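Hi U.,

Before I forget, here's the chain from the pilot set. I'm dumping it here mostly so it's searchable later in email.
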Amino acid sequence: MNCISILIQFIFALMITAPFPKLMAQPARKTGPATVPQYAFKVIHSYPHDQGAFTQGLFYKDGFLYEGTGLNGRSSLRKVRLETGEVVQKVDLPERYFGEGIALLGGKIYQLTWRSGMGFIYDAQDFHQTGTFSYEGEGWGLTTMGRDLLMSDGTDEIRVLNGATLKEKRRIKVHDGDAPVTEINELEVVDGEIFANIWQTDRIARISPRTGKVVGWINLAGLLSPMYRRKPDAVLNGIAYDAHGKRLFVTGKLWPNVFEIQLVLKKQ
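Structure:
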């Protein structure tokens, strides 16, 4: 057998044993982390708001906004008529307390204070104080989820408190991908998700209460004209939800308006 015959047989054998290029398994495509949905907003309506109110907590109930305000000597719990901004009921905190988040549970309103480790309990009808409770660390935001209270403290953790005993059950560590999300402030549960203001920003995080994962970001930049935000602490803070009417309300510290908004999903 000459050299040419040997070469031809070798090439033929190679073609039989080697797979054709189109039949070869293709390497898996590398995919990056899933992009978290981003939301803008559309203003549906604006309502008057006391521009002297240093808003720390907010919720909606039966046509009224309930608001907790802060600053020493100016802290209060208020019932506010949505359409007019009129304060129809109010109780002031002692001057040594800096009021923070509020929440309604079982006919009672719970209110945090910032660094006192003390919370107040009121009858939701007449605002008569019925008790107090204590906690470690700072108090920031507060809301209700089922029979529990959710509490933020400025870190990347949300505490889950037993609504009956006010004892801590567990903590939800909030993260966007691998990065912790800190400065979590005012809270509201909206259709099963936790909405959270991020302090000193125009962003609200949409958080899974089961995993702590941020499942969406709401950007409210431009919602309030800069002419009304001359003070550095006049920042976005205050989320309320009308579950029956599916209405979402937001405001801020020292803002002249409460805004009813509709979320608009941005194209990725």
